[in-house]
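Attaching the record inline, Q. Sequence:
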Amino acid sequence: MRAKQSERNLEYWDKWITKDSLLENLKEIRDRVKALHENEKDEDWYRKTRFYTPHGVEHSESVEDNMHKLIPGEAYEDLTERERFYLLASAWIHDLGMMQSIIKEIYPYNHEIMTPTEIREVHHISSEKYITDHYAKIGIKETDKLILSKLCRFHRRQEDIEECGEVLTVNSEIVRVRLIASYLRLADAFDVSESRTPSKNYFIYLHDMPLDSKMHWIKHRLISDIIPNPDNKTITVFYQEPYEDSEDYDREKYIIIKSKIKMLIETISDGLKEELRSVLNVLIRNKLPSYFDLEFVKVKCNLPRQMQRDLVEIALNYDFMIAPSASKLAEMVLLASANILGFGLEYKNEPKEIISNRDERKLIDNLKDFISYIENYPLKARPCHSSLTKICSLIRSKSTKRNVNLTDLLSLIDSFYQKHQLNRKAIRSTAKEFFKKTFITMQNERINILLYGFSELSTKTICGIRDVLVIINENKDSGIPDHKFDPENEASENIHIFICEGRPKTQTNTGDTFAYHDGINYSLHLQKRRFQNIVLIPDVISGNVIDHFDIHFVIMGANGFSEKSFSHSAGHETIIKLTRYKRYFEGSDYPKLLLVTTSEKYISEEKKAVLNGNTEEIEELACTNYEVDGFPFYFIGNNVGRNTFWLTKDRKLLNKIDKDNFKFFNPREDTISISTLDYLISEKGFINVQEDSVENIILQLFNSDQE
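Structure, as predicted:
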């Protein structure tokens, strides 16, 4: 049972604040903020925001507790008493901008059109505004309003902590504002334990809670405790994982739950590490405790049955937003769809039940919500992902039929999954046959390959090329004893792979750490498959590599294709034009351009026009502006722009940019003519694209698989 705030913190206040005037003022602020929360009775607002993790009194109490944990023992003595007052008071006011009554007061003319998401995104600024204009209503003195309002703004990681003034003077007393803001930011960020998501609220909202909100609540409920360790400058996070020997233990279910917990803990770790990095430089410049790293410790326990069910059902939202491969993304949607219906999918095996006592109607409704989420978010951001379009269309069509049942839906999902896996595996065999029949004369040469854009199918193609080299090497006398000869390793030595970094896809965190880097992910993917000669290159020098390293193959995947064109992430068109430029001016047969894809990514030009509302009639539009991280971008016509900022997060540098006269451009995809290629490799075989009848060949091969 959580102790009452007044009882629990008296011992801290007796030490931290001894001056009566400051102590009484702190209690007044606390009481007035608490009264605001008690009077927050807007039913419409409550209905809209009930799925958010609470930002009320209990959150303020936890933030205050975290401050005492972060600055334990006598370490607080390195703060002045006024600094301690500001730190504790900020725990109560930093989230005022999340309250509807506050929003109405700050934005009297447009509060009704602000969505909960919009309010959340600017709540730190709203809190700052409220303290600036209405400080007296919550017991703040005029001399304190500037510092407390600044603490509200800078408690969020979106604000560069270095932009917060380092010190301000109040009544001739120096206050280290930036340091206090740093501790507030950590104390707020580390309120992620299960106390943030009370069981009562969770089970009340559970049945109609959106999947992405449910994921956020479960993340909190997995964390048992967070304990700062100032001696080794580490913060330890304890998280729950189920026993393997419980009475109702199910191996398949356990594996799924454990994998979902791992995914969620990774997202928590990434977020908390970012918070830590954002203030690290401020902390180490002061005498007070600083923390350099996180340690995650699992606590074996019995997870509540409802949480187990939710972990099985939960959509892989985070992975969807960064999944680089169209094939991987399609697989994830199929697996998650089956999970939501209570089953796990396995290649060449029947689906296995992982949820018993199912409410069939509820699970089908959950699946429909999930497909809507995919269509409105990942698919909207990646409109060229044809396989994902097909999956969503098929599931939505089936799930909305009057007499639909769970068995039929599961059969549809499993059928698509089995075909998806079969097609992927067939790519390697096709690549093997392609290389044997077409380029066997290269067997004594080093094979140079250029890659752009992470593609699992391109990797399978390279594995197919290596399979041929293995056969060739096994037929030769290597002079190495059989028990020491590794044919795959030997074959890999003859393959040199140059990987473009994929700069437009780069996502960075505060401190310029990578959230995602395409070239490195591609390199690690190939490294796991035992390829050795891997060279990562900046995109801009791909022309140099093509010109000087005798590239034999440029291999690329596709998010979607038709008989006339294929689509993939922006940058592919540049690589293709550089390749054809090299061949045209030197009269060379190389590099050969290979597109690797499967039938599930095919949509005919005729059907594409229906799905997209006859795109041929869409005229190219003028540049349209949008913002990413507060900086202006534009895109042209119907070409979707990336919502990621691929440059440095150095705000001091970026803030020098004149936003009125400077813009960024980062389109998401290229649509390229099939005729620019040399070969198309699929599970159906390989096609010489340079043949005159290639459009008819593609139509005949793939059109029958559209439905």
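The two ends are 57 Å apart (CA to CA). The longest strand covers residues 234-242.

More tomorrow.
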